């Protein structure tokens, strides 16, 4: 075999950085011992409506295994319009395109709006798959800090001025942000729209968790503040509310943007799986969906409370956390004697101790936030959460005793 012949990779292939988060699925599958899984952002199997989904698949009897419309199955689009209007958002059929999960929505957004070298504002920390997608199109990422009210929008003009560029896009996760769980305040939502208009930048509004509010009051979506705004690219998915394996989401965008997104999707996968779309449609029209989402909320509220209590019990004085009002995640920052620890370096020991998380640097452009980590509270029962946090505390305390906090 002529092993000396190297495949002629495109320069672009160097921009494909992969995903620490997604890679953790395979890493965890290889482990033989008991691990409390705080790493992936997925609903646990016991919370997915599996029997009803099985019914939706076998009962759909659509008999349709042909190619479908790129825009998505028309009856599913009608159902998505219904879901959108329940959120108080105006939309219309010519704005919608069914996607293969939220990830495809992000890919379409960056593909349509980012040329190599273009400035894209991203939250720091943020969902790293979003960063990876932007990078794959050559984006110049500008990390912007986040506090308990989400992206610090007031800081953007100065950060942008320092780059000497005008942003092409602003990637934001306004509700129960991944990884921090924080929510963008109303004032900042309004300001974000003003700034996008000033710069002529697209707002890529990625909201997988917005319907999973278990505390507090809903804030208007960006599209509620600026209905049908041409600079708003809304990325939605059913992965977190129903099940991620369905790979079903949609974008809600200006019709002129949709026309190009359709062309782009035709050069990717022609259409999303027709039998899956029909099963999803069947599930959405079965009446089980609303009941399911309503059932999830108190469960996630209880799990978040269990995680906060476990952090207080086992890591009191060594960590602070955010306190999300919905979604899946909280963000833990080490402090006190643990402040000098590196959560990436700590990860193999934590895994051996039986707990998995995603280290902070996985969510940053520059590998910073080394003393922070993301915990998903959605996947484990309160009892398991306590076990997991207590294992994490043992790993951390052992590392402190070994002097790792001061060596970093
Ligand atoms: C903020 C955010 N956007 C997009 C996605 C991707 O969604 P999907 O699994 O539907 O592709 C996720 C999943 O973790 C997410 O957290």
Order of helices and strands: HEHHEHEHEEHEHEHEEHHHEEHEEEHH
Main beta sheet: 8 strands, mixed
> How many E strands?
14
- Shape descriptor: globular
Q: Identify the strand order in the major beta sheet.
A: 2-9-8-7-6-3-4-5
User: How many individual helices?
Assistant: 14
Strand coverage percent: 5-15%
CATH-defined superfamily of the largest domain: Type I PLP-dependent aspartate aminotransferase-like (Major domain)
Query: How far apart lie the N and C ends?
Result: 46 Å
Total individual domains: 2
Radius of gyration: 21 Å
Q: Could you explain how this protein is built, in words?
A:
- This protein is α/β, with parallel strands linked by helices and 408 residues long.
- The chain has two domains: 11-48 and 290-402, Alpha-Beta Complex (Aspartate Aminotransferase, domain 1), CATH 3.90.1150.10; 60-288, Type I PLP-dependent aspartate aminotransferase-like (Major domain) (Aspartate Aminotransferase, domain 2), CATH 3.40.640.
- The protein has 14 helices and 14 strands.
- The protein has an eight-stranded mixed beta sheet with strand order 2-9-8-7-6-3-4-5, with helices on both faces. A four-stranded antiparallel beta sheet has the order 10-11-14-13. Strands 1-12 form a two-stranded parallel sheet.
- Helix 4 (101-113) crosses helix 9 and helix 11 (288-315) packs parallel to helix 13 (382-401).
- The radius of gyration is 21 Å and the shape is globular.
- The mean pLDDT is 95.
- The protein binds pyridoxal-5'-phosphate.
- Residues 41, 101-103, 127, 173, 178, 206, 208, 237, 239, 244, 249 line the site of pyridoxal-5'-phosphate.
- Pfam families: Aminotran_1_2 (PF00155).
